[in-house]
Amino acid sequence: MARASSLAKFTHPGEKVRLLLSAARIQRRIRELAAQIRTDFPGEQLHLVGVLKGAAFFLSDLARYIPGDVSFDFIAVSSYGKETRSSGQVRLTRDLDSSIEGRVVIVVEDILDTGMTLSYLLRIFLQRKPKHLRVAVLLDKPDRRVTAVRADYVGFTIPNEFVVGFGLDYAERYRNMPAVGVLSFTSSKKKAPE
Ligand code: IMP
Ligand code: MG
Q1: Catalytic option among 113, 143, 152, 169
Q2: Among this protein's residues, is 113 annotated catalytic?
Q3: Strands, sheet with 46-52, edge to edge from the N-terminal-most edge strand
């Protein structure tokens, strides 16, 4: 169990992390999602596509909890600056290794926020003619959505706060924290991320 005090080991000077989802709770929920996914596609080979880097841990746990035939691949995207982000400018920086045509594809993301990243990816993947295309996200922040995209499998719906841990970063830090917490700043020099 990740207690609030254990988050201190990961916390950077001038920053504070408040526990939102313990490591045990996250693992329990991923097991449930894995079972649900297998129930929805019994006997099918499932191809998980993780969005780097945030989804790395979620994908690796999900893949191990889904029984049967599972393969996976990774994709990487980057969004341009803040002003272009709102116009949906997402760029593919690493494409898949193999074709997804005719396969049962589950896109695995850390968090669904504005929805820009996922709507871009779904548009691309649909053109590649998978047999089925589904979306699994560990976290969903529906308050921030600007596109109509939705996930088929959601670990936790969370309020509009900036979270770190279990793959999610602030300035590339906190990804390795096994729990998810809300980040805030104790030094007045730093501003909260948007
Ligand atoms: P979207 O395109 O706005 O849905 O953005 C999704 C991406 O934004 C995620 O893959 C994360 O990299 C990042 N992101 C959104 N909210 C958070 C957060 O609370 N903490 C860390 N990263 C976040
Ligand atoms: Mg990300």
Answers
A1: 113
A2: yes
A3: 90-94, 70-79, 46-52, 104-112, 132-140, 153-157
Paired residues of 73 in beta bridges: 49
Ordered mean pLDDT values, 10 residues apiece, the chain (194 residues): 73 96 98 98 98 98 98 92 57 96 98 96 97 98 95 98 98 97 84 63
CB atoms within 10 A of CB 37: 23
170, 171, 173, 176 alpha-carbon torsion, rounded to 10°? 70
Q: What is the pLDDT of residue 192?
A: 59
What's the whole-model pTM score?
0.93
Burial class (CB in 10 A: 0-12, 13-18, 19+), 168: buried
The phi-psi region of residue 166 (left if phi > 0; otherwise alpha if psi is between -120 and 50; otherwise beta) is left
| Buried b / exposed e along 97-118 (16+ C-beta atoms within 10 A) | eeebeebbbbbbbbbbbbbbbb
CA of 58 to the centre of ligand 1 (A): 14
Contact yes or no for 55/110 (Cβ under 8 A)? yes
Check residue 84 and give its pLDDT: 40
* Number of residues that make up the chain: 194
